[in-house]
Design goal:
four-stranded antiparallel β-sheet, alpha+beta
């Protein structure tokens, strides 16, 4: 009986393998945290890139005043190329504000003779799909960036 108790006492004092067990518990958590940090930084980087592209597009609009459909298409193509987006993800449109109204309208005719201000609106949309969506955790999400520049 004493031998059995001595053997149990020796086993309790033996800490061989404890580091492997602790690592087995902690490593998956650290990997998930690292992956999450990487994904969040990618999301923030993409949002910043789209915001910068929209600001640059606003500067181009102020400099060139794209008052024709051809000029707006050129601005859209430049913006789509610089961001790596498809043409249908970028829109450059002319909008109007009637009199003292706060809302925008898409056609000048809806204002009648009351067209006070003309604007160019740049809209950029993109979808980001994080890696964890492949494991069924949540879904991707959309970026929507918009700039409105008064041209007249």
């Amino acid at each position: 009986m004493m031998r059995a108790l001595a053997r149990i006492a020796r086993i309790r004092r033996n800490d061989d393998g404890s580091m492997a067990i602790e690592t087995a518990f902690v490593a998956p958590i650290l990997l998930v945290l690292a992956l999450g940090g990487f994904e969040v930084s990618s999301m923030v980087a993409r949002q910043t890139e789209l915001q910068s592209a929209a600001a640059e597009a606003a500067a181009v609009v102020r400099a060139t005043i794209p008052d024709t459909a051809e000029k707006r298409t050129t601005v859209r193509n430049i913006l789509a190329t610089s961001t790596g987006l498809e043409n249908d993800q970028v829109t450059v449109s002319e909008i109007y504000r009637c009199g003292t109204a706060e809302d925008y309208v898409t056609t000048a005719d809806s204002c009648g003779a009351d067209v006070e201000y003309t604007f160019i609106k740049v809209d950029i949309s993109d979808t980001y799909t994080p890696i964890w969506t492949t494991f069924g955790v949540t879904a991707g999400f959309d970026f929507n960036v918009s700039r409105t520049v008064q041209i007249g």
